[in-house]
Amino acid sequence: MILFAGVLIYAANDLPYRGDPDNLMHVEKSVTNTQVKGNYFVQNAYRDARTPNMVTVVLGDYRSIDTFGEQVVIYTAGLITLLVLRRTRKIRRALK
Amino acid sequence: MRRQFDSPIVILGSRLLSPYIMVFGWYVIFHGHYSPGGGFQGGALLAASILLIRVAGGRRISRLQIQEFATTPLAVIGVVIYFATGLVSMAMGGYFLDYEMLPIPGLDPAWLRYYGILIIEIGIGLAVMAILIMIYDNMVRGEDYA
């Protein structure tokens, strides 16, 4: 346990500083000199949707079909509880 | 829930807490454009405020608030709000869930996207709230009938 914590702390020393604009994930071109995709959202989120919260724009606008899928997953979970957990009188009579 | 007994302290405490949790849930939904939050989190908070009354007061008091049969239609309404937003924008000539094409007059495309995100967050919040309440109700009723 202590060894594992030591390994994690040693690895955390090499992490880049938070909010540093020169970080590898914030630059426009990656190491292999290709365009970084997430850069577009960072630069254009406010201009496209007038919303300061970038996460909301990505969830609600750029990736909205994914969010719709999440909602349908939750809805399906609710319907499954309707089917499985609720026992009507008829089923109860049949179980006797 | 075989045996129920009333405790005025628990009822009073949950009555005091529940409206504030509900207001905070609406705040999280509507302020999701500016701060962390959104439909899922706000819906969970709304469900928490209603489930607090349900756990504290039992079924007879909770019947005054949101009845058990009302949860499934609310969930369907929440999903349909989201889907209809996508379908309307597709019918007006855009892509599916392309909020630029929503038929709200007098707004820039960027502000249309703003309000489109707000509409779908409200849909998500309604659906999540109704489904969490529905899961609780079904668990309680299933135990009653077993």
Number of domains of chain A: 2
The helix-strand sequence of chain A is HHHHH
Question: What is the residue-averaged pLDDT of chain B?
Answer: 86
Largest sheet entry of chain B: none
Query: How many angstroms does the end-to-end distance of chain A come to?
Result: 53 Å
Euclidean distance between termini CA atoms of chain B: 11 Å
The proportion of residues in beta strands of chain B is: under 5%
Task: Fill in the keyword field for this structure.
heterodimer, A: 96 residues, mainly alpha, 2 domains, 5 helices, 62% helix, flat, B: 146 residues, 72% helix, 0% strand, elongated
Tell me about this structure:
The complex is a heterodimer of chains A (96) and B (146). Chain A is mainly α. Chain A has two domains: 20-61, no CATH class; 63-96. Chain A contains five helices and no strands. Chain B is mainly alpha-helical and 146 residues long. Chain B has one domain (8-145). Chain B is 72% helix and 0% strand. In chain B, α1 (8-30) runs antiparallel to α2. The longest helix of chain B has 37 residues, at 109-145. Chain B is elongated, with a radius of gyration of 18 Å. Chain B starts with 7 loop residues before the first helix and ends with a helix. Classes of the chains: A mainly alpha (96), B mainly alpha (146). Chain A binds chain B through residues 47-53, 55-57, 59-61, 64-65, 67-68, 70-72, 74-75, 77-78, 81-82, 85-89, 92, and chain B through 32-36, 38, 40, 72, 75, 78-79, 82-83, 86, 96-97, 99, 110-111, 113-114, 116-117, 120-121, 123-124, 127-128, 130-131, 134-135, 138-139, 141-142, 145-146.
